[in-house]
Every structure is written in structure tokens, then in C-alpha cells.
Design brief:
8 helices; about 35% strand; elongated; alpha/beta; OB fold (Dihydrolipoamide Acetyltransferase, E2P); about 240 residues
């Protein structure tokens, strides 16, 4: 069983690691993360069977990270590990397998991992369908919206949020461009430090009178600036 440990406090991560190593079970710890965005990227890279996930963390918290992981394939089983019991209902709404309170006891952790081990492929598929994956969860009009990947035209970093331009309009995501790029490797093309695009929706590369290169996209009226660093990749993608 492959396990990813996520907690912003190093002592908490060390305790979980020690407990896992003390279980005398066939467990492989594939990584550790201190915040949600890093956790999603590591989960995408290493495909853990189980993620031991703290809730209160700086940046992307555990709840948002758990929702983002529903877009991965395969979907990892999430076990929340927290010092606060008021998040239990919200945790199970995020499709958590179990909810452990700190300090975690060894036998309680063993039981949670057993639950995760019987989390069947059929259950994984049900959760993926319910989550509407592959897709990206964003905020819109005070609520949440899951946008299928094939409807996303481009993503632009703007202050604290990322603008997600899709066929139905524009929404905001709390995730960074880097974490989205890591969550869906190869799906989007970076054209600037603040922009990702769907290569299939690129129409034309144009040079402006001031010397800037801009990219025209299907479904987006405003051209997007292409940095010199990423210009060769954009030209190659347009030719292919």
C-alpha cells in the first residue's frame, strides 16, 4: 500500500511516519507534503493508495486538496488526520474514507488503513463519476462548480486567484497555476508565467506593433501574451 503524508507541522508528519513504520504492514511511504497544492502534485505523480491528510494548513487546506484529488486517476483514498472534530461531516462530504483525531493511536490508524485497502475499484469509479472528473473544481457566485477539462480554454493567474476561462464563461480557482499544471500533466500548455492554455483551442500567433507576441484562442476574445521563453513551444504546438 502506497501512502502519502500531508501535514504542515514536521513533528506531526514524523509521528505518522513512525506509526506507519511500526505497523509491520507492507506500506510504502511515497512522500510528504506540508500544504495542499504540494499534496495534489505529489498525489498526481506518485499515485498513492491512501493520503493521510491534515485539514487546517496554510494556502490550500485539506478539504480543497481532497476535492482536487477527486480529479486524479486513480482516485486516492483520503483519511483526514486533524486535531479538530468539527470538520467530520464536511470531511465525509469530501468522500473521506475515515477521520482520525490527533494524537493518532496506532490501532486506530491500522483500522483506517484497512478501510482504505477494501476501497474497491468500483467505488473509485463511482466517486470519479460523482465528481464529474476529469475536471477542475472552482468557485462561482459564492458556490462551487466542477468544469470538465475539455471545456477549459485557458487559465490566467490574477492576484490571489486563477481565472478559469471555459465554454460557459469564467470562474475562479484557489489553486495555483503550478498545482493545476501538476494535477493534469500534459493537458495544458504554458505560454507565460501567468497563463496556461488548451493547445487544441489555439488559433493564431500574432506579433503586435510593440513587438509582443500574442495568442488568439477559440472562445476567448482577448489575445493572451506569449513570453519569449515559451514562444518556441507555442510555435511547435501550432505546427503539430
Amino acid at each position: 500500500m502506497k501512502v502519502l503524508i500531508v501535514d504542515d507541522e514536521p513533528p506531526a508528519r514524523a509521528r505518522l511516519r513512525a506509526l506507519l513504520e511500526d505497523l509491520d504492514e507492507p506500506i510504502q511511504i511515497v512522500g510528504e507534503a506540508a500544504e495542499g497544492e504540494q499534496a495534489v502534485a505529489l498525489a498526481s505523480e506518485h499515485q498513492p493508495d491512501v493520503v493521510l491528510l491534515d485539514i487546517r494548513m496554510p494556502g490550500m487546506d485539506g478539504m480543497r486538496a481532497a476535492l482536487a484529488m477527486q480529479g486524479l486517476s486513480p482516485v486516492p483514498a483520503v483519511v483526514f488526520v486533524t486535531a479538530y472534530d468539527e470538520h467530520a461531516l464536511e470531511a465525509f462530504e469530501a468522500n473521506a474514507i475515515d477521520y482520525l483525531l490527533k494524537p493518532v493511536r496506532r490501532e486506530r490508524l491500522r483500522a483506517a488503513l484497512h478501510k482504505a485497502s477494501v476501497f474497491s475499484r468500483a467505488q473509485h469509479e463511482v466517486l470519479r463519476q460523482e465528481a464529474g472528473v476529469p475536471g477542475l473544481t472552482v468557485t462561482q457566485r459564492g458556490g462551487t462548480l466542477r468544469i470538465p477539462l475539455d471545456e477549459i480554454v485557458c487559465l490566467r493567474a490574477d492576484s490571489k486567484y486563477v481565472e478559469v476561462h471555459h465554454l460557459g464563461g469564467m470562474a475562479l480557482s484557489d489553486a495555483s497555476l503550478k498545482s493545476i499544471e501538476g494535477q493534469f500533466p500534459g493537458r495544458f500548455l504554458r505560454i507565460h508565467r501567468n497563463a496556461l492554455v488548451d493547445p487544441a483551442r489555439m488559433r493564431e500567433l500574432r506579433r503586435e506593433p510593440d513587438g509582443r507576441s500574442v495568442l488568439l484562442l477559440q472562445g476567448v476574445e482577448e489575445p493572451l501574451e506569449v513570453s519569449r521563453r515559451h514562444l518556441p513551444q507555442v510555435r511547435q504546438a501550432l505546427r503539430s
